[in-house]
Amino acid sequence: MYNLTRFAREKYDHFALRAHLKSLGISLRSATEPIDDTSTGKLMEGVLAAFAQFDNDVRSDRTRAGMRAALELGRWTFPAPIGYLNAPKWSGKSLVPDPERAPLIARAFEELATGRFTKQEVIARMTEAGLRTRRGLVLSPQSFGQMVRNSIYVGRVESPDYGVSTRGDFEPLIDEATFYRVQAVLDGRVVVAGPRPRNHPDFPLRGFVRCQTCGRPLTGSWSKGRNSHYAYYHCQRQCRAVNVSKVKLEGAFVDELALLQPTPGYMRLVKDRILHVWEQRRAEAKDRTAEQRRRLHAIQQKLDRLDEAFLYSESIDITSYGRQRDKLREELTLAKIDHHAEAVDELDVEGILVFAERILPRASDLWVQASLDQKQRLQQLFFPEGVAFDGNRFNRTAATAPFFKYLAPGESAEEGLVSRAGIEPATRRLRVCCSAN
Predict the structure, then answer these.
(1) Between 50 and 401, whose confidence is greater?
(2) How much is the average pLDDT of 404-419?
(3) Among 434, 431, 413, residue whose Cα is nearest residue 263
(4) What is the rounded CA–CA span in Å between residue 382 and residue 262?
(5) pLDDT at position 173
(6) Confidence band of 414 (pLDDT split at 50, 70, 90)
(7) Which of 295, 313, 348 is the last residue of a domain?
């Protein structure tokens, strides 16, 4: 070889390779260095091997020092994460937004921040929208999870290996409020409010209607005929007591909804109660909002004191300052989110009640015209515990929401709304409904 620096970068590796070569009958020689099998040659070999390792260590230290210095200046020195591209040196920035993927990354954060979608739902939605890696692959749940935890998307450079946490020299894809709210959603501090995707769009009653024989939820599927396709709801394979066409079951369900009417006088009874509860909620929300304001003020005071300690005294180093500042900023952002969440929107509750009184008698029309998500919500509203089907008809002993009743056979909607049903049963239902809230 030319010299020992080309042979190995570690003393251990050098002597391990030399021993292996010797076992094969091969002697190690250098064209520019006096090494041989004599005592002097072995000493020189050991010294030169140590210098080779020293040279490698110095280069490594210089590289790390250069990397750390660049990171402290806010430069991203690694391959660009998805959503960004490595910028040319003359641009003055280390990263620039990827025009193809950056909007989808921002949208993914925004949808997670709403609390209406689970992580799996957002992955599916972004995949459908065209989000892919640079290799054209779909993001795995693990990769997506790491992505939405990465603070680089708010314009921060974080490198625990180098002990660096600072503002980057590139523009963020999302704001800090959105990022920290996503973290709150992922940590379970914000409940995901969206309905679980229980059903296929073609089968809105799947999982909601039960088999009356075995009690299991019905499923739905398409079966292929020679010239057409047929959709069926059916019970599980172990039972098969129910096997009914989609048209028949959904038609029967619409007929059941047509028999549902608000209980006599219900809206008149609950109107005052709902308005009272609404005012009570507003008062409680006002108290919570005041508490959140006090919390915001306290965190801001801590930030101000931290800045003063760093600027006007030597009691805190820059690393500790940056860590504490970022922690307090995150607390401040989350506190702002909680503050906004406590605010109660101004609603025309009286107008909503009048609207509901007109709409509730049209339960069947509402369900027919609704989207899949709306159908699922309406089903739960009308029949909170689901409903059983025996293959021909629904079981009318199913529990309905407190403000509904079935019309008696031959009774018209108008007759039902003005019938002489007792007030006391409706009042009892009201108490149960309100106490549940």
Answers:
(1) 50
(2) 47
(3) 413
(4) 11
(5) 93
(6) very low
(7) 348
Which domain does 323 fall in, by range?
A: 281-348
Q: Which of 374, 368, 123 is nearest to 250 (CA)?
A: 368
Is there a domain that residue 252 lies in?
no
Burial label for 74, CB within 10 Å (0-12, 13-18, 19+), is middle
10 phi/psi in degrees, rounded to 5 = -130, 140
Instruction: Report the share of the chain in percent with pLDDT over 70.
Output: 68
Distance CA 141, CA 130 (A): 16
- Give per-residue pLDDT as tens, 148-158: 999 999 999 88
H/E stretch holding 95 reads strand 95-97
The answer to whether residue 310 sits within a structural domain is yes
Query: Do 288 and 342 contact (CB within 8 A), yes or no?
Result: yes
Place of tokens 């940056």: 322
Whose CA is closest to 74, among 1, 180, 155? 155
- Identity of the residue numbered 83: G
AA identity, residue 402: P
Residues 40 and 112 in one domain: no
Cβ 359 vs Cβ 366: under 8 Å: yes
Task: Domain count for the chain, please give it.
Answer: 3
Please give the Cα distance from 51 to 9 (Å, whole number). Answer: 9
Distance CA 237, CA 243 (A): 11
Does the residue 370 lie in any domain? no
**Which of the two residues, 230 and 228, has the higher pLDDT score?**
230
Give the integer Cα–Cα distance in Å for 217 and 206.
Answer: 7
- Token pair belonging to 165: 């946490």
Give one DSSP letter per residue of 216-246, joined into a string: PBPEEEEEE-SSSEEEEEE--TTT---EEEH
pLDDT band at 437 (very low <50, low <70, confident <90, very high): very low
Q: Is the confidence at residue 107, as pLDDT, over 90?
A: yes
User: Residue 377 above 60 pLDDT?
Assistant: yes
Nearest alpha-carbon partner for 197 in 144, 147, 122, 107: 122
Helices assigned H by DSSP within 313-387: 318-342, 349-359, 363-369, 372-382
Exposed / middle / buried, residue 410 (Cβ in 10 Å: 0-12, 13-18, 19+): exposed
Measure Cα distances from 369 to 17, 173, 383 in Å: 78, 39, 18
Q: What is the pLDDT of residues 269-326, one digit of tens each?
A: 666 666 777 777 778 777 888 888 888 888 888 888 888 877 777 777 777 777 788 7
**Does one domain contain both 128 and 45?**
no
Q: Residue 379: inside a domain, yes or no?
A: no
Mean pLDDT of 89-109: 90
From first CA to last CA, the distance across the chain in angstroms is 83
